[in-house]
Amino acid sequence: MEHYLDNAATTRVSDAAAQAALAAMTGGFGNPSSRHQAGARAAQALKEHRAVIAGALGAKPEEVVFTSCGTESDNWAIRGAVRLNRRVGKHIITTAIEHDAVLQPCRALEREGYEVTCLKPDRMGNITVQQVADALREDTALVSMMLVNNELGTLLPVAEVAKLLKQRKSAALLHCDAVQGFLHVPFTVGELGVDLLSISGHKVHAPKGVGALYIKSGVKLPGMIVGGHQENDLRSGTEATAQIAAFAAAVSEGVARFDRDQAYLKELKAYAVEKLTGEVAGLECIGNGEAPHILPVTLVGYKSEVVVRFLSDRGIFISSGSACHKGKPSHVFAALNLPKKQMDGVLRVSFSGENTREDVDALVDGLKQAKEQLFTSLS
Ligand code: PLP
Fold first, then answer.
1. CATH 3.40.640.10 occupies which residues in the chain?
2. For residue range 162-186, what is the model confidence (pLDDT) as tens digits?
3. Cα 321 to Cα 331: distance, rounded to the nearest angstrom
């Protein structure tokens, strides 16, 4: 039996999502732009699916544009926002613990002459609104801050930053990467007060290859791709109707399950913390992230890559940090300035509502075996 505990990397596509994709690819396969009935049916389905995603975000359907992934949403939001705000100035504020989908476009802009202030977290991984207040300038064109950090599970003060921008009458646009927050912590775009917000399907039991960008009404973000005028002329290309159908199905389920999942995952995470720290000597939790689905830990004295492989051979799947880092030390944990022996052993356990205590028990046993069978890296 396998134990999948890497849900911040990706999630299993739910049965309802898979069925919705199949139905869209077979019965409802029309092109939403076609003028005949098959096209009209596809267009109607697309409208309904957009309304589902918008509803889950507390947005209007016309404020939701489908993209291919969270990375595309982040890149578009960042590049588009600074172009839109080019008269405001060339200063961007973001954080050192953003995903590369945000950091890399910011780095690219830096090479084009923008100045990027990258706020550093404290040792627990927290960023404060005061840091943004101190960094904010007249020429700040964009603030980009994630809602939930993908490696630490920390919550960032996005709503407070929106209030600050308002108080200071700042012209900066506020973008939020909510890829790990969506359907994991409660929010609406109205409560957050953001102008732009990115989400991704495959983190919430939809397939890979679909995401969305919320663009607040009135924010005239330049388009992403020009062509056949789809998505309100903002992102041309025939819509990925099957992935979008699956995204909507997964989101409907996620909304219906939200309260149950919140309570369930909080309890499961607390159980995992107790068992792991109580039974695996040398295992320490990192930070104080409140997101119910993400638990970063370190197995002091062991190399995380080796431990991940050891567990994988036994059917237990966790991550040595963000899946995107492919073995390189994570910039997020590096930003915490962890001592090397803690840093080397960093592991991320991440849950979905499909996990059970049995998965946690298997992980605890696997880690105990790892400690018995692997050499420590401490001299
Ligand atoms: N932002 C965060 C916080 C993420 O965790 C991820 C994926 O790990 C992304 C963006 C990128 O999303 P996608 O994989 O859909 O491109």
1. 15-256
2. 999 999 999 999 999 999 999 999 9
3. 10
Arithmetic mean of pLDDT, 134-162: 98
> Which of 94, 11, 111, 73 minimizes the C-alpha distance to 331?
94
Q: Average of pLDDT values for 75-95?
A: 98
Query: Whole-model pTM?
Result: 0.97
Phi-psi region of 58 (alpha: psi -120 to 50; beta: other; left: phi over 0): left
Cα distance between residue 247 and residue 251, in whole Å: 6
Instruction: Please tell me if the CB atom of residue 156 comes closer than 6 angstroms to any atom of ligand 1.
Output: no
Helix (H) or strand (E) run with residue 317 in it:
strand 316-317
Q: Which fold has domain 15-256?
A: Aspartate Aminotransferase; domain 2 (3.40.640)
The CA-based dihedral angle spanning residues 78, 79, 83, 88, taken in that order and rounded to the nearest 10 degrees: 40
pLDDT at site 314: 98
* 103 Cβ neighbours under 8 A, 6+ residues apart: 94, 118, 331
Distance from C-alpha of 73 to C-alpha of 75, rounded to nearest angstrom: 6
Side chain identity, residue 83: R
More confident residue, 375 or 54: 54
Report whether residue 95 contacts ligand 1, using a CB cutoff of 6 Å. Answer: no
Ligand 1 centroid from CA 77, angstroms: 14
> Looking at residue 321, what is its pLDDT?
65
- In this prediction, residues 280-295 reach a mean pLDDT of 95
All CATH 3.90.1150.10 domain ranges in the chain, comma separated: 258-373
Mutate to test the pocket of ligand 1, among 99, 151, 205, 294 (most ligand atoms within 8 A of CB): 99
- Catalytically annotated residue among 106, 176, 285, 324: 324
| Band of pLDDT at residue 325, cut at 50, 70 and 90 | low
Quick check: CB of 321 below 6 Å from ligand 1? no
- 118 catalytic? Reply is no
Per CATH, the number for 258-373 is 3.90.1150.10
What the block records as the tokens of 251 is 């989101």
